Amino acid sequence: QSALIQPASVSGSPGQSITISCTGASIDVETNNRVSWYQQHPDKAPKLIIYEDSKRPSGVSSRFSGSKSGNTASLTISGLQAEDEADYYCCSYVTNNVWVFGGGTKLTV
Amino acid sequence: EVQLQQSGAEVRKAGESLKISCKGSGYTFSSQWIAWVRQMPGKGLEWMGIIYPGDSDTSYSPSFQGQVSISADKSFSIAYLQWSSLKASDTAMYYCARREGFCTNARCYAYFDLWGQGTLVTVSS
What we know:
The complex is a heterodimer. By secondary structure, chain A is mainly β. Chain A contains no helices and nine strands. In chain A, strand 3 and strand 4 form a beta hairpin. Chain A is globular. At the A-B interface, strand 3, strand 7 and strand 8 of A face strand 5, strand 9 and strand 10 of B.
């Protein structure tokens, strides 16, 4: 099964920007599959923050942005706030109605 | 209110069976796919499988094929995740999630926009 690779951890100071990468064959531009991103605070359910590579659901802060180039998707959080400290997961379709999550990235602010 | 409400925490012994549920409300449950996601203690999210309640079309991740069974009752707007013989390694939080967007043979623009609160399953050996 195709894997999505994320860094285990990233950190930043309040007000700074950070970027989390997500790399895998299933999100290569040739596959035409879009990436979604999820935020998970401790002991909470995941929350959708980016879909179709770069779109934000209603209610999600504009400080969150997504992009994709080649086989790597990126989540950027600008103006870091303490409340952004959480785990972040990318997700994409693989094939045959099967999806895969990245391993997750722990953000420390 | 649009939501997915999951059944409560379960404690079982290895070898026992278990069925947990995910009830949708506030939208047409039968018309949108529901996925199940596992999160083992201190670990990441793992996509398990997905069902279309309208016709019970189901797909599984190769990692979970044969290990669990996903079903749905569209009349009651409920999706289920079932084990016939639990193992200690099944101890985890399980989430259901609604799939939004669309997929064709050429492209997939889908994502999981609505999540249940999670069901904690604890299996003792």
